[in-house]
Known about the structure:
heterodimer; A: 319 residues; alpha+beta; seven-stranded antiparallel beta sheet; six-stranded antiparallel beta barrel; 5 helices; 16% helix; 30% strand; disordered N terminus; B: Lipocalin; 2 domains; ten-stranded antiparallel beta sheet; 4 helices; elongated
Amino acid sequence: MRNHNRKRRKPLALALAGAVAATLMSLTTGPAAAAPVAAPVAAPAADGLTMVNGAGKTVTLPAATANMLKSTAGHTGNAGKADPAAKPGASATPNSVIGPDGRVQEGAPSAYPWGAIAHLETNQGGCTGFMLSRDVLVTAGHCVHWNGSWVTSYTVTPGRTGNTKPFGTCSGGIADVWTTANWINGYPSDHDYGLVKLNCDIGYSTGWFGWWYNTGENLVNQYFYVEGYPGDKPYGTMWWDGDSTYSQTANKLWYWIDTAGGQSGSPVYHYNSTSPGLCGGWCVTAIHTNGVAGSNPTNSGTRFRPDVMSFINYWISQP
Amino acid sequence: MSRPSYMRILLMMVVAVLGAAGCGAKASGGGAGGEPEPLRGKAFVLESATEHGKPYAIVSGTTVELRFTADGRLVANAGCNVLSGPATVSGDLFDADLSATEKACDEPRHAQDVWLSTFLGSRPAWRMDGDRLTLSSPDTELVLAPQKTVPLHDTPWTITTLIDGQSAGGATTEATLTFGDGEVTVTGLCNLKTVAYEESGTTLTFQLGPMTRMMCAPEIMTVENAAVRVLDGAATYELDGTTLTITNGDHSLQLTAE
């Protein structure tokens, strides 16, 4: 269960936070916040780490301190899984379970932050999204626009389990869905991100994720979760898996986390053990977009970065 | 899941980095001696498919399309999900290292996604028969026709997308532009009926005439306001198959041929 994992991780998080508290106190001045207010831009640090949080705060840490902030939760993951390359057909199916299925059904789908993960049903197919403000649901670009066509109707159901919908639903149409010119011009995977500007304030009920990106951090071998609404499970149920990342570029993140069709737009997140001023707690840093195919037996997502957050923050700032 | 061996991880990281950077042997798309790939910049639509010699029926209402980008990627529309990644040809074999998006689809479209993903990953043989692309494996053959190209002039173009700076959103009403002799005829909007224009290469210089001042429904006014911003002064256009993009500063309209 996820709560068990969280309990295992927290002492380590607290230990890390304590170890760097003195340094951070001299660098941070504002409270942590989950609601972004501006489009921050982080300059690369020469040998340290420049981080930007959901409140638009930029903090540059010395290299030694930055290393201590890396996720070192020590979670063993699904150690019993087989080598992904040994699974027959793993390269040929859009369902991206790498080796034995490590996915677990969410035990607390209406609790924060998991209640902020929503089933996104559209006229083009099923996806996942996550709340990043009172009325902005972030998802993959291909979940709102693909093959020259926009989604023309959608229903968002946060925290659902089948017909149990603890926060109700929010529905709309083409006027609410947004992506970027970069995505619709050729559909490059690096620009696969979009959002729904909901016509309701359901985020006040669900809460919303914090977020961060940084321009210098090595995310490889950090432990993340991907959570959403896979289409191969009972309809409208939320499932998660956690595992390590194995590769990154400036725009993409690759990981071993099990997913399936329907989880496009899921948050790639973990528990950030940082002090106030950064994104502390459950924070997102990428949007799940792609599953296993071809010779690369990993799943991947679009990383948060200045252009992504500039786009998202613009829509968060709109009434 | 358990971790692969370090050698396997190293190998996969190399593949991933090369794929992501678009600069590996496959990703470069460069043929022997650095010749450009013969398929780059071309788009094809599935015309017919056979499995074990029998016709393979595509799911009704879907289109299978393969688009080879100038930077060496294949972007394939499988019917529901997007398959994309570096693609190249080696002799008469076609190599594609594709990743798939993860929308949930109904079973027929899901099966079609799997079918196309499996086939394209099987290193099928390729050949051009005139302007048609044929991809074949021992069991499967796909014949694809070039995507049709629609002329700018005398085509009713439907506005599909409004672009304002970084953001792109869908048109909230149906409106068309038809480029005639020095004049664009507009349908479906409120006050904008015609716009004079001159064409020089890929530059279109528009001159808005007098317009009425009616206030129509918000979904119509949103599109009209976007159109007025683009169809005023010097703009550029780009034609890609059945898609037309007109850009004027930070504002663009994307249109599709009916």
